[in-house]
Amino acid sequence: MKKILLLGCGNMGGALLKAWADKTDHRFTVADPADPDLPKGMAHARSADDLDETSFDYLIVALKPQLIDDVLPAYLPHLAPSGVISSIAAGYSAERLAAHAPGRAVIRIMPNLPALIGKGVSGLYAHGSVTDAAANEIEALATCSGEIVWVDSEDMLDRLTAVAGSGPGYIFEMLRAYVEAAENLGFNEADAHKLVLGTVRGALELAQQSDQSLEDLRTSVTSKGGTTAAGLAALNGNDEFSSLIRDTLAAAYQRALALR
Ligand SMILES: NC(=O)c1ccc[n+]([C@@H]2O[C@H](COP(=O)([O-])OP(=O)(O)OC[C@H]3O[C@@H](n4cnc5c(N)ncnc54)[C@H](OP(=O)(O)O)[C@@H]3O)[C@@H](O)[C@H]2O)c1
Question: The whole model's pTM is what?
Answer without folding.
Answer: 0.91
